[in-house]
C-alpha cells in the first residue's frame, strides 16, 4: 500500500490524533488487548499511516504510557522533591494523589494491570536512566526524620500505606459502586471526603512517642 508522506503542516495534527486514539484504547484494553486497526479508525487514518509514525504497537504504547506517567505522577514527584517538612509532605502527597486520580479515575487500575504483565515498564519509564528516584529519596527522608525522633515509622511500610490507602478506592471503584449502589457522583464525593480521613490516619501512624 502506498503511503503519502505527511507535510509539516499536518504532521502534528495527525500525531496528536493518533496519541489521543491510542490513549483511549490502551487505557481501556491495555497493551495486550489493544488493536492497531481500532486506533487507526478512531484517529481517522489507515494502518500504513499509523506504522509510518510509530512503527509498532509497542512503540506507540511506550509513548502513551510515558506521557500518562508524567501527567499522573508529575505533581507527586514535585511534592516528593520539595523542601516541605515530613508531616506536611505526607499530607500533600495524599492530597495530590487523590486529586490527580479523580481527574484520571481509570489510570490506577491501568497501571496495576500493566505492571503485573510488564514489570519492566516500571524500571524503564518511572525509574528512568540517569534520573533521581523521588520515592527512594522520600524513603531516605523518612528514615532520617525517624532517626531524629520527629516521627516514628518504618519507611517502607509508611510508603506502602500511603500508596495503598490512596489508590485502592480507584482500583476497586466498580466493586464499591455495585456493593453500595453508588452513582459516579456519589463515589467521587465519598473519595473526596475520605481524603481527610486518609491524611489523619497517616499522620497518626507516624506519631513519635
From TrEMBL:
Keywords: DNA-binding. GO terms for molecular function: DNA binding. Residues 12-72 form the HTH tetR-type domain. Residues 35-54 bind DNA. It comes from the Bacteria. SUPFAM superfamilies: Homeodomain-like, Tetracyclin repressor-like, C-terminal domain. InterPro entries: Homeodomain-like_sf, HTH-type_TetR-like_transc_reg, HTH_TetR, Tet_transcr_reg_TetR-rel_C_sf. Pfam families: TetR_N. This is TetR/AcrR family transcriptional regulator. The lineage of its organism: Bacteria, Pseudomonadati, Bacteroidota, Chitinophagia, Chitinophagales.
